[in-house]
Inverse folding.
C-alpha cells in the first residue's frame, strides 16, 4: 500500500514533469501527434531533459496554460488571448469569425 501512497503524492507534486504520453492524454491527442507538434514548433511549452533527441517533459501548468490560450469566445469567435497566451504564440483561432 505504501507504493500506492507514493504514486498519489508523486502525481500531486507540482514540480513533477508529465511524460509526453501523459501530456498527450490531457490534450486528448496521441503522443505521436504531440511529437509532431514539437517538431513543427506548435503545442505547449516543454522541457528537454538533455541534448537533442533526449526525453522531454511537460509542466502541468504549461499544458493548462496552452489549453487556456486556445479558448475561443462563442459570441465573437475570437481567441481569449488575455488568458494565458504567450507573446509570439499563435492562438489557433481566426482573427475574424468565419462565415
Amino acid at each position: 500500500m505504501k507504493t500506492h501512497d507514493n504514486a498519489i503524492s508523486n502525481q500531486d507534486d507540482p514540480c513533477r514533469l508529465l511524460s509526453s504520453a501523459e501530456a498527450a492524454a490531457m490534450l486528448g491527442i496521441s503522443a505521436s501527434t504531440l511529437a509532431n507538434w514539437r517538431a513543427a514548433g506548435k503545442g505547449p511549452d516543454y522541457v528537454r531533459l538533455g541534448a537533442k533527441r533526449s526525453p522531454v517533459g511537460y509542466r502541468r501548468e504549461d499544458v493548462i496554460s496552452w489549453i487556456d490560450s486556445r479558448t475561443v469566445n462563442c459570441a465573437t469567435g475570437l481567441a481569449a488571448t488575455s488568458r494565458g497566451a504567450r507573446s509570439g504564440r499563435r492562438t489557433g483561432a481566426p482573427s475574424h469569425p468565419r462565415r
